[in-house]
Design goal:
alpha/beta, about 450 residues, two-stranded parallel ribbon, five-stranded parallel beta sheet, binds adenosine-5'-diphosphate, about 55% helix, binds magnesium ion, Helicase, Ruva Protein, domain 3, about 10% strand
């Protein structure tokens, strides 16, 4: 296995190929299973055949592999502030701080994975330490910036909070903080996944963080700000990086595809963006994976097949069936998707998204909408529907059959959206009854008299 892995590494799809070949041995297979469990690679059941221990690599995965391949996510790491997609609020504030020379001593970047935290931290370090800086519009080809991008700059120290989480590491950091920068103007400490530091380590860090030497800047990044001590957060300027909107992901992937000479349809890119859930890195990894499977031409059907996704049309059809309460159609669509080996959990999430969009539309349209099909649903009904679908989320994976669980969830959702309809009906009837000059109204009236 080792020899083979080594040879394959020389080839093009380093990331893909190593993962494929790991699947030959049982331990590797375990890792791959974890990848799947973590939802990184949702593959059609038939494709899983490729990854069985001892299975041979699919020839299409090895197609045309020139040397020295770098995965897209690394090759396309933003190098300047202008390269960062979808985080304008962060970029603008950092640029202003640099231009006005109001640079804080500690920053905290918070956001979901793959949205640009580490990249922005490095860009910020470049702006601080570039030749003639600090300046926001530095030249990325400047030797100092190149060194920072490559991770070889002596004064930009990246620490992975996940693996260096002990108090000893922080003590060491406290000592080195005292020394003047060797190469640049500032010593910049970038601590990634800072929430992984132990409480003792945090406490050791506090003092330094309060009054660091003039030449020291801290940039912390985390996906999980709740786990940080409030005393740390209050000493930092906090920036929240947002999930990147699908349109921007599509636009960026289009640019990458053009530059890489990959032909890919708009539908395929939209699908990839849908799966990435706002994470640019995830979208790029999926795109990379698709290139390994399909070569230089990628269609929407390819993406749907490989990842077991369901087409927008089918999701719309299912949403419409749920809206009409057409149980037979619901069962049939679920059955079709299951037979085609589609990912049913993903189907539920996509359906939720559709209902959520309709819900927003109903609010915009003044209380009801026909966005889900011919029938008109009220905001209340849609809210109930969405609630019921979300409740089903955790249950779909439980038990014996994902398919049955999904069916039950959908049928229940239909019921609960209807239950509300009866509710509102009673309300309407009561309102009507109130308007009638009946006995009840009279007794009401007589009661009010003193
Ligand atoms: N806002 C963004 N604009 C452009 N590319 C991005 C953005 N966010 C992430 N990426 C891509 O994802 C990769 C990883 O980004 P990174 O900054 O390390 O994410 P994080 O630290 O938030 O997990 C980058 O190399 C880049 O290719
Ligand atoms: Mg990161």
């Amino acid at each position: 296995m080792h020899g083979q892995t080594h040879e394959l590494r020389q080839d093009r799809k380093v990331a893909t190929v190593v993962t494929f070949s790991q699947c030959r041995g049982v331990p590797g297979h375990f890792h791959f299973q974890r990848w799947i469990d973590e939802g990184f690679w949702r593959l059609r059941k038939t494709n899983l055949e490729l990854f069985k221990p001892g299975a041979d690599l699919h020839p299409s995965a090895l197609r045309s592999m020139p040397a020295a391949y770098q995965v897209i996510a690394r090759k396309w790491r933003p190098q300047t502030f202008d390269d960062v997609v979808g985080q304008d609020h962060v970029v603008r504030t950092l640029r202003n701080a640099i231009a006005r020379n109001r640079i804080a001593h500690a920053y905290l970047f918070v956001g979901p994975r793959g949205t640009g935290k580490t990249s922005t931290a490095r860009i910020f370090a470049k702006a601080l330490n570039c030749t003639g800086g600090p300046k926001a519009d530095f030249d990325p080809a400047d030797p100092a910036c190149v060194a920072i991008a490559e991770g070889s700059h002596l004064d930009v120290i990246e620490i992975d909070g996940a693996s260096n989480n002990g108090v000893d590491q922080v003590r060491e950091l406290r000592e080195t903080v005292q020394y003047a920068p060797a190469q640049g103007r500032f010593k910049v400490y970038i601590i990634d996944e800072v929430h992984m530091l132990t409480t003792a380590a945090f406490n050791a860090l506090l003092k330094t963080l309060e009054e660091p030497p003039e030449h020291v800047k801290f940039v912390f990044a985390t996906t999980d700000p709740q786990k940080l001590l409030p005393t740390i957060v209050s000493r930092c300027q906090r920036f929240d990086l947002k999930p990147i909107p699908p349109e921007l992901i599509v636009q960026h992937l289009r640019k990458i595809a053009d530059a890489e000479g990959v032909k890919v349809t708009d539908g395929a890119l939209a699908c990839i963006a849908r799966m990435a859930d706002g994470g640019m890195r995830d979208s790029q990894s999926i795109f990379d994976q698709m290139i390994s499977f399909c070569g230089q031409e990628i269609s929407e059907a390819d993406v749907l097949d490989v990842y077991g996704l369901i087409s927008e049309e089918k999701i719309a059809a299912l949403a419409s069936a749920v809206a009409r309460g057409d149980n037979a159609a619901i069962v049939q669509i679920v059955d079709e998707c299951d037979t085609a080996g589609r990912d049913l959990t993903r189907l539920l999430l996509d359906l939720e998204n559709t209902v959520r969009t309709a819900l927003l539309q109903s609010i915009a349209e003044g209380g009801k909408t026909t966005a889900l099909g011919q029938v008109s649903l009220t905001t209340e009904q849609l809210t109930r529907l969405l609630d019921a679908l979300r409740e089903g989320e955790s249950k779909v994976k439980l038990g014996l059959s994902e398919k049955i669980n999904l069916e039950v969830t959908l049928l229940k959702a239909v019921e609960s959206s209807r239950a509300r309809a009866i509710d509102s009906l009673i309300k309407e009837l009561t309102a009507l009854a109130d308007e009638l000059p009946d006995e009840a109204a009279e007794t009401e009236g007589s009661k009010k008299k003193p």
